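WARN  no MSA supplied for this record, continuing single-sequence
INFO  ligand: magnesium ion
INFO  echoing inputs
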Amino acid sequence: MNSSNLITIVVPTYGEGENVSHLYEALETNLVSVSTSYEFNYIFVNDGSIDDTCDVLRELAKLDKKVKVIDLSRNFGKEIALTAGVHEALSSKAIICLDADMQHPPNLIPDMIQKWESGAEIVIAIRKESEDQPIFRWLGSKVYYWIINKISEVEMTPQSTDFRLYDNKVIEAFKRATERQRMFRGIMDWLGFKREYVYFSAPKRMYGSAGYSYAKLFSLAVNSITSFSLWPLKIAGYLGLLLIVIVSGIFLYFLGFYLIYGVFIISPLAIVALLNTLLIGVVLVAIGLVALYVGSIHTEVINRPLYVVREKINF
Ligand code: UDP
Ligand code: MG
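INFO  complex generated
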């Protein structure tokens, strides 16, 4: 079989010593049905685990040459671990990313491959419900997707996961992203391309506990909001404008009253308060203006490709 039929499975692992061999077995069993048309490789990225993950992976790699291991020097976080795996997966026709804890059922893979064969360039697994998802996380994810879809120009699918198949075209485009503070699937969503979906209900994590604390999730959310939208920066400016309009309105009202009835019905103290508010408005507008400049620096610095090409014909 030639390497043009290669599909690489990328798995980030952090403290998954007990899970990886189960995952490996499950992958092997579930890929049998598609193994006549494709050759598979596994890339396990050990993201600085402190348990025996790396040893288990080494053993697997010894037994099966399809298993490749990237051992990162320390814990870089899942987004970077995924990125490393994807960067190292060379000459694959497609890449499939999934978690190591069996929360992304490998039996979906044949379906994903089929959707890809019929033209999808990204196949996204959507989580229907999670037996493992505490109410706070559920709520958090709802709020997060509501905000991000309101303020950014990129459409992100709620309940979508990192369990995805990417066509090689998508991967090539992804490799041009240079930002350091990254949300892996956020960048993938930004790239566009034709998407298809498969659905699953997430089972409980097999062994161990989720490595993503609320704090980590929150900072991931903030990261992705600031890297996909300048809206938070501009709020200050708009607020300032609003203040100026309101305060000017109040002043005009009293001025009109004075001109018509000849009485000044506003106390000196109230004037001071109003003037103060007006000045706060001016300051906020100034911050908003600075934000516009910071915003353009920000856009330059994250240095996304200007455009993404799906295909070039007759070049
Ligand atoms: N993971 C990683 N680095 C980290 C945290 C997690 O590579 O710093 C991996 C982890 O081993 C698993 C996947 O990312 O394969 C998802 O992690 P987890 O199950 O903890 O997150 P959740 O299921 O809550 O999204
Ligand atoms: Mg998990």
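Residues 73 and 269 are 63 Å apart (CA to CA).
INFO  checksum written, moving to next record
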